[in-house]
Amino acid sequence: MPSLNISKVAVGCASFDALRKRQQSRLTDGIVPIVTRFMPKRADELIGGSIYWIVKHRIAARQTILGFAEGADRRTVIRLDPKLVPVRARAKRAHQGWRYLAPEDAPADFDGEDEGMAELPANLVVKLTALALI
Q1: From CA 9, how far away is CA 31, in angstroms rounded?
Q2: Please, how many CA atoms are within 13 Å of residue 64, restricted to the half-sphere of its CB?
Q3: How far apart are CA 22 and CA 45, in angstroms?
Q4: How confident is the model at residue 121 (pLDDT cuts 50, 70, 90)?
């Protein structure tokens, strides 16, 4: 089991659907490359873990981290699985770059009974989450 994950703000994405479209447009050779400035010091622990995407101040989805590579200008490329998995919404403040996220702090994936929850408008999900209904 992966021991570590990271969180990152999906800058400019207003919904899960917008994030999904962005990731599909970046798909190259079966991976979604994400460029970041520095290589994480704990990169080996992150492989097999996930990157949790923050959309509208809530963690909304995750993608599995397949590995890391050095890109142009000595920047780091995070190689992600193209499958975007919706997760149970959890409030999360925005931050710059990425932050480590321990497995016990990561929200659970939606299971079969939650089919269609990811398609709800973000503002409705925020309200339902605040009321502890989802």
Answers
A1: 19
A2: 10
A3: 26
A4: confident
Residue with tokens 């923050």: 54
Amino acid at 7: S
Helix (H, G, I), strand (E, B) or coil at 84: coil
Phi first, then psi: what are they for 56, rounded to 5°? 55, 50
Residue 65 DSSP SS3? strand
Q: 133 falls in which pLDDT band (50, 70, 90)?
A: low
For the full predicted model, state whether its pTM sits above 0.90.
Answer: no
- CA dist., res. 61 & res. 54, Å (int): 8
Letter for the amino acid at 128?
A: L
92, amino acid identity: K
Placement of tokens 């992966």 in the chain: 2
**How far out from the chain centre does Cα 22 lie?**
12
Could you give phi then psi for residue 73, rounded to 5 degrees?
55, 30
pLDDT at residue 66 above 70? yes
Q: Two tokens at 42?
A: 């704990």
| H or E, element range at 21 | helix 16-26
